[in-house]
Amino acid sequence: HNYQQNVITRADYLKQLHIFAISHRKNGVPYLAEALHPDTGSFEGHDGHNHSEHYFHSSFNDLIITGLIGLKTRGDDVLELDPLAPADWPWFALDDVPYRGHRLSILWDKNGSRYQRGAGLRVLADGKEIASQPKLGKLTAKLPLAGIRPVAKIVPMNYAVNNDGDYYPRFSATFTDPKSSLAKINDGNSWYALVPPNRWTTEGSANATDSLTVDFGTKRAINTVKLFILDDGAKVVAPASYEVEYWTGTMWKPLPGQNRTPAQATGHRANIIKFPTIETSKLRATFIHGKGGRTGLTELEAWGEGSLPYVPAPPPAGNLALNLTDSEFPKASASFHDVFGGLPKRAFDGKSIFLPTPMNRWTSYGSPNETDWLEVDFGSPKEVGRVDLHIYDDRGGVQPPVNYNVQYWIDAAWHDAAVQVTSPAEPAGGTVNTVKFTKVTTQKVRVLFTNKGKARSGVTEMEVWKE
Asked: What's the pTM value of the predicted model, to 2 decimals?
């Protein structure tokens, strides 16, 4: 398509693209994993639960846009089309394509009845036609001069999203179903499908009401909250009602002057609450569970106007294990670390990222040991009473441990911390696992992980606190 050759024909291209397109199915319904057998179309071995279901191949977009439709990207202001779509197709359209400062629409309507703009191939830039021809084939056109768009100084910001792994914004909940993850509530993604799961739910909660709180770490100017409510029809259903409150600094108060769309809690859509701008450091959503199930969200957003660049709130003082400058202390070590970059020091850099990329974690993947440990040396004695473990889980070679045990170093020996109370009770991946224990003064703390079967343990962050 981009060079002269006489081996592959347009018919060959269309045949292979059709095979690619129909591979987006499993058992007769839309589906795509990361790979499939080239001859049988089977996804076997590539579509484990919460692994790569509905894997979106960007190459498919490219094959449609630059191949089938034929938009050939260039470095000048000439628009060039060379569609590989067959001329006997009655119609197709590619709409709202961002290209060199414009929004393009490319229409093919063989007899003019589909789009009511006349027969033939037509190209529109920003809604205005810039070229047309009666037959489907090569076409060039001069793009109009793109207007100068000033960069806005004040822009809408979602202060709840956290894709950088910073301490804030930070979510907490009165209950989280272990099959879901609190980390998914502010990852910038929202969908309502069961697989792959992208949700926080309270399924299994014994409470009639449950709450979800976001701490921004500093005051933010907020005027809109969006709750992306789940409704599976059973077990996880839309709440009977909900209330959103803000923190005044001393107490919780309902958001003033709320305008809700829709008026009642509704699943499978964003429930939008608009209100006069308030400044607050925290928001809390409380749900009265609906009949026959418990509440769940795929995302919570909190919007307000702000200045670029966005500046995250600093982490709270007191994390004795935090090492932001690669100083000698606090010093990280481990019984074993993987060979893919999962170094011990990555667990003490202030970043908590539960996704595979970017790599920001320690794991013992590949360890020959049934138990592994992760240690921090403070360099001098410190009083400690709590450890927060951000446990990593890729549902494969790295999974939550069977259990873990906090130990401290005194008199040239390791001792188990006394009266350890863990929350959640069982180790859970994709969330913060907190263990509180009787305070002790020590120079070193380590966590001993009992690995789960053939899987090994890992954390994206380990925090050590006095309180």
From this structure: 0.82
Domain(s) of CATH 2.60.120.260: residues in the chain: 156-307, 331-465
Looking at residue 32, the DSSP 8-state letter turns out to be -
- Residue carrying structure tokens 């609906």: 290
Q: pLDDT grade, residue 344 (50/70/90)?
A: very high
d(CA 8, CA 97): 28
Domain 156-307 adopts which CATH fold? Jelly Rolls (2.60.120)
**Residues making up the chain, counted from first to last:** 467
Q: How many CB atoms sit inside 10 A of residue 354's CB?
A: 22
For residues 133 and 121, the answer to whether their CB atoms sit within 8 Å is yes
CB atoms within 10 A of CB 387: 25
**Contact assessment for residue 319 and residue 382, using Cβ atoms and an 8 Å cutoff:** no
Task: List pLDDT tens digits, range 300-337.
Answer: 999 999 999 999 999 999 999 999 999 999 999 999 99
- Checking if the pLDDT of 364 tops 90, the result is yes
The SS3 call for residue 215 is: strand
| 276: pLDDT strictly greater than 80 | yes
Query: Sign of dihedral through CA atoms 360, 365, 371, 377?
Result: negative
As a whole number of angstroms, the distance between CA 12 and CA 10 comes to 5
CATH of 331-465, one of 2.60.120.260, 3.60.40.10, 1.10.3630.10, 3.40.640.10: 2.60.120.260
pLDDT of residue 138: 96
Computed over every residue of the chain, the mean pLDDT equals: 95
Q: What gap in Å lies between CA 342 and CA 339, rounded to an integer?
A: 7
pLDDT for residue 157 is more than 80: yes
